[in-house]
Amino acid sequence: MHVDDGTDANPYVTFRLKIHLKEAHGLVIRDASGSSDPYVKFKYQDKTMYKSNTIYRSLNPNWDEEFAFLIDDPTYQLRLEVFDYDRFMMDDSMGITIIELVQLKLFETHELKLMLEDENGTEEYMGYLHLSVTVTPLTETQKNEVSYSFFTERFGHFFS
Ligand SMILES: [Ca+2]
């Protein structure tokens, strides 16, 4: 009988974060037209892991984007930053929110509604993001398989 005494030959070496960015509601106005062009950046340890599509002229954007990436340590936070895309100027902040990954039970899909906050603390209500997150630990073997399938999915066409 196999006893898990923590010295298993296949310990978890990484974590896959699967995210389904669904939509947002009640976002703030950043353009003179009375709307905004929102997109979301997903940051882990100051590195942008994913940037969503920009939805033009919407304060209730529906992204419906699914993606995944690997992280080493789920005790770090995932930081989500919403911006208004501007063609001729610097993109404006539309609020930020944090996901405490360590609070999410592994393997389970969590539906999250995250209130956006103004980092400078001047705007009270900035709307919210709706997304689901699944954190799955991977062994070394699984990690290599994921990297390989990601590589062939993304870059396979370069070789065909
Ligand atoms: Ca804009």
UniProtKB/TrEMBL annotation:
GO terms for biological process: regulation of neurotransmitter secretion. Residues 1-114 form the C2 domain. GO terms for molecular function: calcium ion binding. Pfam families: C2 (PF00168). It comes from the Eukaryota. GO terms for cellular component: synaptic vesicle membrane. This is C2 domain-containing protein. InterPro entries: C2_dom, C2_domain_sf. Keywords: Calcium, Metal-binding.
